[in-house]
Amino acid sequence: MVKLAPSILSADFANLLDDVKKVENAGVEYLHIDIMDGHFVPNISFGPIVMNALKGKTKLVFDVHLMIENPDNYIEEFVKAGADIITVHVETCTHLHRTIQKIKSYGIKAGVSLNPATSVFTIEEILPELDMVLLMSVNPGFGGQSFIESTFEKIKKVRTLITRENLDIDIEVDGGINPSNVKMVVDSGANVIVAGSAIFKAENINERVMEFRKNVL
């Protein structure tokens, strides 16, 4: 089953809970929460305080994407704020295995994210420890960017590695996904779709979610 994960970076922060309820009522499964520190990526978003404000007010899975340096220092805070999944970047983790084990020690799921220029083979050794691989289909830091076409082949490579090892791992793709290209993303092997502006900025969120669903059937 394909899961949809709207990114709250594109939500209206003056009415954040209302927007979260809109996507929840539209039937999405995850809420993608992008955490940016202004160092690893050229933008700053927010921290655990925003998640705490939503905690207990929605049944959506909190899919937390840490685009930050030294993620080990903040994992516990995000767990306390309600994270169900925490994904870290291979590019920021000196001891990736240790970081993944730290996340899983809290009883939640762990994922690893790769920037567009990072090879899938950087995670080959850690793959059996993961619940999810997040492939960036734009360079992280800002919403509304265009999908990088080479991501299709990258998704296929990761799916091949997962299948070869007979593993049960989600492949999430984030950046520039809309109803017109989502089928190609899913056909390449992804099963969790992050969409920010394509969902939150739609005139009718229910209809837009239905459009995504229809296009991947």
Automatic annotation (TrEMBL):
CDD domains reported for this sequence: RPE (cd00429)
GO BP: pentose catabolic process; pentose-phosphate shunt; proteolysis
Pathway connected to this protein: Carbohydrate degradation
GO cellular component terms, semicolon-separated: cytoplasm
Gene3D superfamilies: Aldolase class I
Annotated binding of substrate, by residue: 7, 65, 141-144, 174-176, 196-197
Protein name stated in the entry: Ribulose-phosphate 3-epimerase
HAMAP family: RPE
The species this protein was found in: Helicovermis profundi
GO molecular function (one): metal ion binding
Transmembrane segments: none
Taxonomic classification: Bacteria, Bacillati, Bacillota, Clostridia, Helicovermis
